[in-house]
Every structure is written in C-alpha cells, then in structure tokens.
Amino acid sequence: MSAKKHGKELSVTFYREMVKVRLFDEKASELFTQALMSGNIHTCIGQEASAVGACQALKPTDFITSTHRGHGHCIAKGGDVKLMMAELFGKATGYCGGKGGSMHIANVGLGILGANGIVGAGIPIAGGSGLTSKIKGTNEVTLAFFGDAASNQGTFHETINMAAAWHLPVIFLCENNKYGVSVCIDRVCNTQNIADRAQGYNIPGVIVDGNDVFAVYQAVTAAAERARKGEGPTLIECKTYRWHGHYEGDPMSYRTKEEMKEWKEKDSIARLRKEIVKSGIATEAELDGIEGEVKVEIEAAVEFAKESPYPDPSEVTTDVYADDNERSVAR
Amino acid sequence: MRKITYGQAISEAMHEEMVRDEAVFIIGEDMGVMGSVFGLTRGFMEEFGAHRVIDTPISESGFTGMSVGAAIRGLRPIVELMYVDFAGVSFDPIMNQAAKMRYMTGGQVSVPMVIRAPQGAGRRNAGQHSQNLEALFTQIPGLKVVLPSTPYDAKGLLKTAIRNNDPVMFLEHKLLYATKGEVPEEEYLIPFGKADVKRAGKDVTILAYSREVIFALQAAKELADLGIDAEVIDLRSLVPLDWEAIEASITKTHRVAIVQEAPQRGGYAGEIATQIMEKIFDQLDAPVKRIAGLNVVPPFSPALEDHIYPKPNDIVAGVKELLGRK
Fold this sequence. Notes:
The structure holds two protein chains of two kinds. Helices cover 45% and strands 9% of the residues of chain A. Chain A is an alpha/beta fold.
C-alpha cells in the first residue's frame, strides 16, 4: 500500500469508487432481502479493490468483460449507478431496458462488453475484442474479469492459448475468491495458484493481494503497457474473498465463521482508508464527506429506479434481431 | 450464363464481401494455409493476410466465442465450423452469447456474424459428421437459419448473411459442394425470408430445403410422368420463414408434403405442418404429409446410411400416398 506514491487524486478516487461499489451492493442486497427485486443478485462485497484497481489502470477507450458478480466492474468502468439500479429493478430506464437484469449489464460506449451469466463465457468475448484491436491495428486493451471457478472452464484455456499464440492485447484478471458457489478451489484444482497456469501458455502470471487496490492497479498498469506494446496477454490473479454468499440467501454452510472473520479483517476499504489517513493525503473528515456523497448518490439511484416505469409489454418482442425483427419473431 | 459449383459460389461470396468490407474476416480450422478442408478459401490468406483469414487451434468454443466479441466490437466474422456436428463443442457461444446478446442488452449491441457449417448425410462420415441440426437452431430466438440448395442461392444468400446484422447459421450441405449451376458474373443478393418456387405446379405443394430440394425436383419429374403436377418450393431460410409463399402455394394446390433430411421427430417440418393446420386448415384437402429422416444416429456403412433420409423415390411414394394414388 502506498497512497503517497500514487498521489491524492488517484488514492481518493480509489476510495470513492470502492465505497460506491460497496454501498451499491449493500443496498442491492438489502432491497433483494426486502423482496423489492426479483431474480438473482450476486454481490461483490469484499472484492471492491480488484474491480476498482483494475479499471482505474485502464483508459476510457479500453474494454472489459464482466461476470455474474459484475456490479463492481461496471461501476468501476464508469457505469451510472442510476441506470444500473434501474436495470436491477427491471425498469425501462435501466441499461438494458429491463431485458438483462443484474447479470447482463453492458454499455459498449463505456467499454463494458457485457456481464455474463455463464461462468467463463466472457473470457472468449474479451479475446475477440483483443483480436479486433489487433485486426484493426488500434491500441485498446481488453480486460476479462473472471473468478477462480471460471479458470476451470475450457473457454479460459482455449482463449488464453490463442491470446498468447497471437500476442493479443488482453489481460486475464482472475478474482480468486476461493469458491465456485460452494466448492473451494483447493478441492478441484491441483495448482496452488491460478496464476501458475500462465506458465503453460508461456505468458506472465502475476499474483497480487486482491484486497490491496494499489497492488492491483500496479499489476494491471504493467499488463496494459505490455499489451499495448504488442507483447501479448498477462494473467493476473487477485487473491480476495466475497463476504456474502454466492447469491443473496446462500446459507454458506461450506465455509467457517473463522475464515469469514479472517477475511473481513483484510477489508480493502478499511485498509485503504487507514493508508490514506496515515500518509496524510486526506483526513478522516474528507473521507467521511466522500462516503456521505456516495450514500446520497446511491439513495438517488434507488429513488430513480423505484420511480422509473416498467418496460411496456410491447417491448417483449423487440430487440431479438437487429434486421427484420418483427418477421423473424413472428414464426 | 456461366456455371460454377456450390462450393465456388460460397467461395466467391466470401471473397467479394472481403474485398468490399474490411470488417469482414474469416476464422476457423484450416481456413488459412490449407484454404479450408473443402477448398473454399484457397488463396485467401495470401490475398487478404493472415490477420483476416485466421487459422485457429482446435478450440471451437474459444474461437466461436471470440468471434462474438469481435462482432460486438463491429467486425463481421465468418466462422467456419468444419462440420455442424462441432456445434456440440461451441454451443454456449452460439446459444447463450451470439443469439442473446442483443436482446439481453436491450438492443445496445448487435452480433453480425455468420457461422458457416456443412451438414448432412450421404458422405459415409458416420454419426458425428453427418447430422442435420437446423431445427435445434430454429429453437433459439436470436439466430437466423439459412440453408441454400443451389450455387445461385448459396452465393446470394451468403452475401446477405455477411451483411446481415444478426448471427446467421448458414448451413451448407456437404453433398452439394460439387453440384453446378448458373451463377451470373454480376453482383446480386437474395433476401432472407424469400422462398423460391423451384418448379411451378398445380396438384400438390412440396416444401423442402437444402439437398432435399434437389431430390424433390427429381421426384417432381417422376410425378409428372404419372400425371401429377407438383410445385416445389425451396424455403431457403427457416428463420425468417416465408409464410406468404407457403400459403399462396397451398391455396392453389390444397395438398402439401414437407421434406427434410433431418430426423422427423422434433424437426422443422413438424413446425411448418402445425402452422399450416392452425392458419389454413380449411384449404387442405388431405392431412399434411411429412417426408423426413429416420430418428437414428447416422450410420457409417453405405448399406445403412442410404436408408436414413428421403430420396426421390421416397418423395414420390409420399406424394402418391398424399394424393391417394397407388
């Protein structure tokens, strides 16, 4: 951790964004528990540093693919919490007009090529985005977020192999939160670290403390630089932990209270706050002020979502096809 | 007019579209150095470069998924699955990604990609290289499904597919690659959802697609000798479907047989039959007749494989039965 080295602006931005991710998902969890939202919600509380550190190291013109646990990635890449919350409510004003929900938030303009409900499916999409930059001769970088469980999917191995062989400008960022739903990665993977798998593809594999936003930022900055120079992909493993269950309401019988407590003590936001204050670049009061502003922003997002209309039922048959939609849906 | 093969027509369509639009690229197994196992992209890599004619590893799921990413970013991938059967290893990117991306994002993105996949039996390729999977794809909203039967249709429809802004399953029949037909030198496109009356007739309608169109035309000749004037309609695309053409023909003939090479159970013929019965039942003078493949795994032995899908004589027999003729 080194707030001084990274300066006030970046450190405070980290703080604001990480708090925003935390408060957004805490609010989503609360609303879901109150049955004000339907479907599935997968929160990333505890994993804020990897989302924010990674996206801050990217340019606005760079791209990401996200996962079912993707609210943090979208916020960190510039997503508007109002439009995100409206999407979680299934409202017409949401990013996807209510057609996608929590697991499918996308906005190509912001470089968010889509969250994904299929574990590991965003990885080849990121690879294809990297391939696009290579074919076009442009210098965007694409970062694929995925979890430890996705690293056991064929799509991970197939894409990382092609990206390595073709030196694609892609960053494979694994948020290793230890569990694929209930299954601990130790039980289904014989390598100690996901990053070790990089050796098999002859690319750099980097392990970082996923709860240290500065460490994530530095690793992604280096990987992006390498990608932009045409030197190919990097696999980064962020060791982290999700505080909530796989889904809201998950009884979490597969892990111990001690383990959860231990990881809560490694809270990335508390650590960042302490570091910022200790290094003297901002005061407790300033950080409290930021937190207050974010709270207001999240509340406003909830209000916006609640007041927004549901999509008109006629929308159910639109957007299936780009060309000749009506006829292609009719029969 | 000059005559070229179905394979050459497909090759020409890809070539012309690659010249016309830099966003178009080809990706798949053996597409570059080898020029594809069916020889359809021979010389392409030399002309367009290895970055636009991409030889992939044997990673169907990976490169089909990557093509979805490239399409979202605005390129126009032409993906080749060497055999449609390999859709089994790339089904997530087809079913859950390409097909659904536009809808799930509320219309923010489109996925303009073509998945070319040879299908069909008759080549002694056995169980994992001979299937007809079109019905599977029609069950997935978001995909368009196109099956040309002639060189002319193959070229015009493939050019449309490449310019279309949706994922298109372009299902070619392996046994048609060497067939020849008239294809003009000058450019033309064939719209989706426009069936083609391959033979006009007044006594009975035969609806078919892909290789069965060729068989239906042969059957129609034999039927003509028996005094039965069959109309053969090539549907060309199943999604979108040209219902108007189906209705117009049945309104004229009042009898219809639907022919498909695929197994009968759950096939697209059943879907069309249901639509006919729901919408124009009063036009029918006889029940709709399906003439379809057996519900079996494609066998290897020629002595077995030749029995699994309808041939011209099966179509003749089916139509005679439909007309109550012995």
